[in-house]
Amino acid sequence: MNEFINKDFLLRSDAARQLYHEYAETQPIIDYHCHLIPSYVADDHRFDNLGQIWLEGDHYKWRAMRTNGVDERYITGKDTTDREKFQKWAETVPYTMCNPLYHWTHLELKTAFGVDDLLNPESAERIYNKCSEMLRTPEFSARGLMKHYNVETVCTTDDPADSLEHHIKVRDDASFGIKMLPTWRPDKAMAIENPETYKAYIRRLGEAADMEIGSYADLIAALKKRHAFFESVGCRLSDHGLEAFYAEECTPEEADRIFRGVLDGKKPDSADIARFKSAMLLEFGRMDHDAGWTQQFHYGALRDNNTLMYEKLGPDTGFDSIGDFTVAKQMSKYFDTLDREGKLAKTIIYNLNPRDNELVATMIGNFQDGRYGAGKMQFGSGWWFLDQKSGIERQLGALSVLGLLSRFVGMLTDSRSFLSYPRHEYFRRILCNVLGEQIENGELPASEIDFIGREIVAKVSYGNAKDYFKF
Questions:
Q1: Residue 179 β-bridge partners
Q2: Rounded to whole angstroms, how far apart are CA atoms 349 and 291?
Q3: What is the rounded distance in angstroms from the CA atom of residue 185 to the CA atom of residue 193?
Q4: Can you give the C-alpha Rg of the chain in angstroms?
Q5: Phi, psi of 241 (to 5 degrees)
Q6: What is the 3-state secondary structure (H, E, C) of the chain?
Q7: How many CB atoms lie within 10 A of CB 94?
Q8: How far apart are alpha carbons 344 and 378 in whole angstroms?
Q9: From CA 284, how far away is CA 184, in angstroms rounded?
């Protein structure tokens, strides 16, 4: 029996242990941003084996395997089996010590399958066989795993042209009891850099909206139509993946000129790209405000750095990194423009470069508005390369010092995996450890531990998200 992942994992004080076990541990999960495949939930997908559920599409693991010298055919190759890929992952795991993958791997084995053994080349076959056998039972289907982890709501990430048929199927299934809601992700609607790709997308969007799109006004009308459809299926959130914020001046006439030029096959210059995206972001913000949604912004990723591998494998395959974009003025101008119009919706901002922690923590304070309740503007949890222990601690620290930690809406998985829910547990343990350390050090009063547990730990773990999103 290995005692690495035990009941007090990451909890280094009596106060931390009390906060976690009494106030955080049993809270349900609201996973308000993820990349689950909706059809897997709708059809209650069964996974064939542990390699399949763990390694397909997981670029965190892929990057580690490449760094450990694993040949690409055992990572994304079509001529190797799930078992062979899993064996190479097991050979890599001992070398991920001090990387969050080591924690996550063993948390997932423990919490999903009851496996206490460390994963390594010697234990790999035994663990693979046991977990794969469990995965083939009804309790370990996609829905079964969500129930196992006490999931209450998940929000997937969906394009405006998507049919949402799987969300509708889940919504209409009264036997399930867990909400799967769509999230409006309209990035492709403003991605005019490649005219041919963009024109193909506009045709698809027009088909979904049942209208011809030949002008900028048509584009906005089609998007509003789809926005209303998303709302009818339960959508309450948008999400935008940006390198940086766009806030250039752009009239509707200029946006129409740029849009028509792209439809004619003209490649826009960088100035027109920035203008068009600025106009679109404002329109998206207005739509969200009018619908009472929350808008999310994930910014700062430098994507597809390896051209050869991008041409071979496509995007989202493990070749992205932190970017160093300048954002403060444009971010401020964007929010200020919407605020002056009375159209600034609830907002969550996620930065990928940790140098921006204090920037975001102070920016949200500029646009808080008590008419919308507590915490209208949110500094989102540590994202992507920052959703690990030190990244979470730094985000919590900046938010605590420059905002109100007590009003934070907490953690999400941002994951494609049905085994990623222990990231909520990981976050809650870190949160309790941070607060417990301050209690032990006399920085917070020990006499107020019940208040801290009820009003900070329990609410940041679950209650704030429930009140904020009102799913």
A1: 153
A2: 19
A3: 18
A4: 23
A5: -100, 110
A6: CCCCCCCCCCCCCHHHHHHHHHHHCCCCEEECCCCCCHHHHHCCCCCCCHHHHHHCCCHHHHHHHHHCCCCHHHCCCCCCCHHHHHHHHHHHHHHHCCCHHHHHHHHHHHHHHCCCCCCCCCCHHHHHHHHHHHHCCHHHCHHHHHHHCCEEEEECCECCCCCCHHHHHHHCCCCCCCEEECCECCHHHHCCCCHHHHHHHHHHHHHHHCCCCCCHHHHHHHHHHHHHHHHHCCCCEEEEEECCCCCCCCCHHHHHHHHHHHHCCCCCCHHHHHHHHHHHHHHHHHHHHHHCCEEEEEECEECCCCHHHHHHHCCCCCCCEECCCCCHHHHHHHHHHHHHCCCCCEEEEEECCHHHHHHHHHHHHHHCCHHHCCCCEEECCCCHHHCCHHHHHHHHHHHHHHCCHHHCCCCCCCCCCCCCCHHHHHHHHHHHHHHHHHHHCCCCCHHHHHHHHHHHHHHHHHHHHHHHHCC
A7: 13
A8: 13
A9: 10
Distances in Å between the Cα of 346 and the Cα atoms of 105, 183, 258, 296, 351 are 34, 15, 30, 9, 17
Contact predicate 332/362, CB 8 Å: no
Written as six digits, the tokens of 8 are 């007090």
What digits encode the pLDDT tens for the residues 9-46?
999 999 999 999 999 999 999 999 999 999 999 999 99
CA-to-CA distance for 179 and 468, rounded, in angstroms? 16
**CB-count burial class (<10 Å; 0-12, 13-18, 19+) for 22:** middle
Contact 152, 30 (CB under 8 A): yes
- Residue 393 token pair: 């601690």
Q: Is the pTM of this model over 0.90?
A: yes
State pLDDT tens for residues 390-430. 999 999 999 999 999 999 999 999 999 999 999 999 999 99
Task: Specify the amino acid at residue 210.
Answer: D
Of 85, 15, 87, which Cα lies nearest the Cα of 57? 85
Rounded to the nearest 10 degrees, the angle between the axes of helix 195-209 and helix 216-232 is: 50
Length of the chain in terms of residues written: 471
The structure tokens listed for 332 are 């401020």
Beginning with the edge strand found earlier in the chain, give each strand of the sheet holding 29-31 in spatial order.
29-31, 151-155, 179-181
Residue pLDDT, tens place only, 182-214: 999 999 999 999 999 999 999 999 999 999 999
